[in-house]
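Hey,

The postdoc asked me to send both predictions to you directly instead of through the lab channel. I've kept everything plain text so nothing gets mangled by the mail client. Protein one:
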Amino acid sequence: MKKLACFLILSTLFVACSQTDSSQESTVKSHYLVNRAPLEPTPYLELPLGSIKAEGWLQDQLQRMAKGLTGHLDEVYPEVVGARNGWLGGDGDGWERGPYWIDGLLPLAYILDDERLKEKAQTWIEWTLNNQAESGYLGPIPFETEPETEKGIQKGPREDWWPKMVMLKVLQQYYQATGDERVIAALTKYFQYQLKTLPEKPLDYLSLWANRRAGDNLMVVYWLYNITGDAFLLELGDLIQEQTFPWQQIFTNAENAVQFQDIWHYNKIKRFPFDREEIGNLTLSKVPGLHTVNVAQSLKQPMVYFQKSKDSQALPAVKKALQDLQQYHGQAQGMYGGDEPLHGNNPVQGVELCSIAEEMFSLETILKITGDMEFADLLEKITYNALPTQVSDDYQTRQYFQAANQVELTDQLETSYEKTNHEGTDFVFGVLSGYPCCTTNMHQSWPKFVQNLFYATPDGGVAALLYAPSSVEMTVGHGATLKIKETTGFPFRETIHFDMELSEEASFPFHLRIPAWSHNPKIEVNGTEEKFEVTGQVAVLNRTWKSGDKVTLTLPMELKYSTWYRDLVSIERGPLVFSLKIESENKIKDRKDRFRAFWEVFPKSDWNFALEANTLSNLSSNIEIIENDWNGEFPWNLENAPIELRLKGVHIPEWRTVKSAPQLPENLPKSMSLNEVTQRQKEITLVPYGCTTLRITEFPVVKVE
C-alpha cells in the first residue's frame, strides 16, 4: 500500500508540475490529482481509495456489509450477478445490476483491505479489461441474434451507454486503489470509441437512462483528462454535455400550469435532440414528476460540467433544485418522495433506496468541486437518518421504499404509484421485494461516504468536512506523512477528537467544517482553546504541526423543530431527526413468487400521537435529552440508540391506518380543551430516525383552546 501511495503521489505531482495555468504556483504543492487547465481548479482533492479507514461503529457497519449482501450477493442472487452475467462473459444479465454491485463491493474491499472481497471484484475488473474490443467498446459482448427472454434478467440492450457509465466509475476507483495502468489505456481507448460513435449513436439511442445520467460519464472523462492531458477528452466532454438531458435548464424553468396525466410521462419525452417545448414544461415541482433516481443523479451534472464551462449560473441552479425538492416533495429525513416519479411531500410517500445512494454520491461530487458546505450538511443529514434505516441490521434485507411516517410494513400498503407491478412489496423488507435495482445499487453508499471523510487541499493541507469515527494516512506540507485518527460519538455526541501522527514537523492548513446548525462551536489544540474565524462554514487552522498534536472540535447541538406537509412538525438536534419509538414485531411471509420471502413489520405500541403546541414554544424546557450508555458500537436500532428524547405527546386514536398507511384524516383535531389535552397526554420517547423501523417523524400539532 505504501508503494502504491508513493506511485500515486509521484504521478499526480508530475501532472501538477506540467500545468501552465494561473494556478501553477498552488498546484505544484499538491500531492494529489488536480484539475488541468482549462478545467476550473477545485478546493478539495480526493485521496486514493484505501487511504481512509472506518473506525468504531462505522467499521462495524462495513463489516456487516461484508458479511451480508454486499459480500455475498453473487451467492444470494446468482441468476443476475453470478457467472452468467454479461460483464463476466456470460449469456445472462448484461445491463446495470452487475456493475451496480461492484461499484459498492470494490471500494468496500479496499477500505476493509479484505482479500476475499478484492478477489470477487477483481474477476469483474479482469474480464472487462481483457475483453475490450478493437474498436474500444467495453462491456458485455452484443448478441448476434436476439436471446430468449428470461424473467428477472436484463440481457440487453448490451450496447446501451448507461451501464457502462457505472463500470467507468468502478475502473476509476480500481485505478485509485492500485495504480493499474491498464485502466488508463482501456479508458483512453473507450473514450476515443465514444467520441467516434456518439454522433451516430447518441447517448439515448437505445434507452433514455444514459442521457439522464451522463454526469457520471462526464466525471470520468475529466478525471482521465487530468491524468493524461489528452485534448480529445475535452471535445468528448462537450459532446456528452450536448447530448445530456438539460438538467440545469429544467432546474431553473419558470413554474407553469402544465399538468401531466400520464404517471410515466418522463419515460416518453422525445430523445436527443430534445424538444424545446417539452423541456420548457418540466419543473421539479410537478406531481407526478421526473424519475426519482434520475433526479438524484442529475444534481451533480451541472457542477461536473461547470469545471469546463465555468458557468456562474450552475451552482444557483443546483441549489434551487434542492430547495424545490424540499418544498414540493421533501421529507424530514433529508430526502424526497419519489416512487418512482416524484410524488409530493406527504410523509407516507416512498423514498427509493437507489435515490439515497445516488443523491449521496452527487452531494459528495459537488462538495469537492464547490467547497460549499451546504452540500455537506445535507449529505450528513441523509446519511445519518435516511440511509441506515432502509437496510436490516445484518445487511441481508432492504426496503425498496421507506417513508418518514410508516407504522405497518405489509403487502397491503398502498401509497405509491407502483400498485400492480410490484404487487404490494414496495415497503416490506426483502432481497427482491419492490424492484431489484436497489438490491445491487445500495452497496456504494457507506463505502463512498467513508472515502469522502477527508480530503487534501491544493496547498498541501487536509480537510475534515464530514464527521465519523475514522482514520486517514496522507501526504501534507512539503512531503510529510500524516496519520489522523478521528475519535467521536458524532452524530449522537457533540465532540470530535483528531489525534495526529507525523513523520516530521510540517506546516499545513487543517480545514474543519462548521455545520450551519451549530452555534458557538469550540476548537482546542492540545487542550488550549483556539481562536478561529469561520468563512463559508469552514474554520482553517494554519500552523506548524508536530506528531502528538491533538485537535478537539465541539459542535453544540440544539433542539429545534421543522415544519412539513400540512403543518406537521419534526424534532431535530444537530444532524439528527427524531422519530417516535414504536415497538414492533416481524412476521415472515413467502408467497412463493418472484419477490421471494420477505418480512412484514407490525406495531406493538401506540403510534398515533400529536405534539402539543406549547411543547414547541420551548423545546429545551419541555423535552428531556437522555444520553444512553454507549460504547461506540453499532447504534442503528432501538436497543442500541445512543440518545433519546422524552416528552409529552397527545394521543389521537382518531388517527388510524388506511391500507396499512398512517394517512392523515381530514377531521384530525387541531385544538382541544386543556382538560381533554391533559387526559390524552402520555409520555413518549423519540429516538434517532436511523434507529427506527416503524416510526412517526412528522407529527400533527394540537393547540389548547
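Protein two:
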Amino acid sequence: MSRRTPLHLVLITALVGATVTVPASPALAADLNDTFDTTAVGATPDGWTAAGGGGAAVAADVAGTVDRSLRLTDTSATAGISASRSYGATSATVVANARMRAAQTTAVVGLHLDGTAGHTVTVALDATGRIYTYSGATRVDLGAYTTNRWYDVRIVARPGTATASIWIDGQRRATNLAFRVASTTLATVQVGISAADTGTAWVDDVRTRFEPNPVSWPQVGTVAPRSASQIGTSKLIVGAETLDRDYTDYQSYKGYLGPLGATRARFQAGWAKTEKVKGSYEWAWLDAIVDDSVSRGVRPWLQTSYGNPIYAGGGGAGLGGQVPSSAEALAAWDAWVSALAARYADRVAEWEIWNEPNLGGVDPVVYADFFIRTATRIRAVQPGAVIFCCALAGVERSYADTVLTRVRDLGKLGLVNGVTYHPYNANPDASYEQVRLLRQTVDQFSASIVLRQGENGAPSRPDSFGALGELSWTELAQSKWMLRRTLADLGRGISTSVFSIADLNYPSKVNSKGLVRTGTDKKVRYAKPSYYAIQSAAALIDDTMTPITGYGVTDDTTKALAVQAFRKAGTGRQSVALWFSGATPGDDNTRTPVTLTVSAGSFADPVYVDPRTGAVFDIPAGNWSVSGTSYTFRDVPLYDSPILIADRSVVGL
C-alpha cells in the first residue's frame, strides 16, 4: 500500500542497503541470564563447568551485599580456576554482560567470550590494579579498578567484522577492537583467575543476547556515545525522581548519569526530607545531588513536592497526596519554596510545581491557586525562572483547562512557561492524538506555553509496581518502548523525560522502569539494554537536529508505520526514524523489508542505523536511488523498534 505519512526522526546514523531479503538468523541457543540467586551456596551453578584445579568455582553470598554470586577462589600459585558456560555456536553479534568484583588487585581475573580457537574477546582485571582488554595481540588499558567493588561490563562482539566494543559502568571504553584470535563464531562465556595468581573474585548477572545482522550490507561501525557534557543541549531529559523518599540511591547510580547523554534530569526537591524540624532546613542531601549533577553536564529540573507531615494540614508526603491546606502549613511551604529557590537559583533554571495533582483528586482550582503562590515565590527570587505546571497523570485536558482558566482569570498566566503530562500507554504511539488535543487546549491560552512530556517509561519485568505493571514486560520490550517514546517526542519537537534512570525500590515493591537495574539495597546491578538504546538516541539527536514537519514518505507496507525526520543545522542533511507502530513492543525482532520513497530528502551518503543495538550499516548503491530531491530506499528492514535512515555525516561513529 502506498501512502504519505508525516516523518520526524531522530538523529542517529543509518541507512539501508543491499539485499532484497533479510538473511535468516543463525541457529541460536537460548539467551543466558544467570543471577545465581537460586543456586545453593557451595554448589556449581547449573550449566556451568569448573576447570583448572587451582581452587573452586561455586555460588556464595557476598558479604556486605544482598547478592549471591559465582565466587572463584584460587588457592594455587601454579594452577588456575575457571568456570564456563556454552550458549551455542553463533555467527550473530553477541552482546554479553556481567558484573565483576575482585577481593584484591594482585591477581588476573578474566571474562572471556570464546570461539573454537580460544579467547576471542577478553576483559580482565590485572595484577596491578588495571582493567584491560585486547585489540588483536595488543593490550588496551581501560582504567583502574579497586577491590571489593562491582564493575558492570558489557561486550558487543561482532563475528561478521571480527571486532568488539567494551563498556564499563555504562561508558564505552574501547571500540573497533580486533578479535584476539580469528573466529567466525562464538560459543562460550568463561570467567577465571590465572594460573600464576591466587585470590578471590565474584561474577554475577551473566547475560548474553544474540543480535543477528538485519541485512547483509556492510557494517561500517557503531553509534559513538556522547556524554551530557559533550552534547551540551538537547531536549532529552532523564527522570531521577523519588530521592526525596529514598526509593533510589543517587550515590550508587550517579556514574551512569553523564554517560547516558540526557542533558537534564528531573529531581523532586523533597520538603519533608529537608525540613524535619519546623523552621530548620537540612540541605546537604540535595546540595550533593544538584552539585554533582551539574558537574556531569546534567542540568537539574527541580520539582517542588510533596507535603510535610510535621505540619497539621501539611499535605500528602507521596504520590497522589493532597497539597498543603492549613494556614501554618502554607506559610511553612512558602518559606521553604523561597529558601529553595534562593539556594539553587545559580544552578537550577527550570522548576515544576507538585506532581500529578489530578491523580490524588486535588481540585484543579485549588491546585491553580497553589501553583500561583508557589510560582510567585520562585519568580520573586529568580525572575527568569522557567516554571512548568500541572504535571498531569495521563493527558487530562479538562484538568489543564480548568487550571489555566483560573490562572488566566487571576491575571497570572505569565507565571506559566509550560505544561507537563505523563502519557502512560502500553503502545507509546497511541497517545499522540491526546497530546495534539492538549496542545489545542493550551493554545487557547497562549501559543508560547510549551508542552513537555515530564514522566514516562515502561517496566522491564512483568511483576513491576506502578503504571503498565500488569503487562508482561521484558528488558528487550522495554528498550523498544523507550526508543519509540523518545524519538516520537523529539520528532515532534517535544522535550521528553525518560522515566527513570534507576529502578525504584518502594518499601515492599519495585517499579522496574529504570534504565539501570538495582537490587533491594538500591545499589546498581547493571545498565539494562534500554540504557544503551537511549544512550545511542541521545548521541544522535541533540539540539543541532531540527524536527521536520510535513515530511513526505510513501511505502509499500500495509503495517502502521511511524516516521519522524530531522535536519542537521548548517548542512541540511537528514536523519529519518521509522518503526512499526501498531502494537505494544514485543520480543520478536523479525524485520520486514520495506521500500520507501521520500519526496524532499537530503542524503549524500545514507546509512542504516539501529539505535537499539547501535549498529550502523552502509546502504549499498543498489538499494537506493535519487532523482532531484526524491530518494527511494529499497528493502529497508523495519520492525517494532526504531531504525534510522541517516546521512553518514550526522552519525558519529
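Summary for protein two, as requested: The two ends are 35 Å apart (CA to CA).

Thanks,
C.
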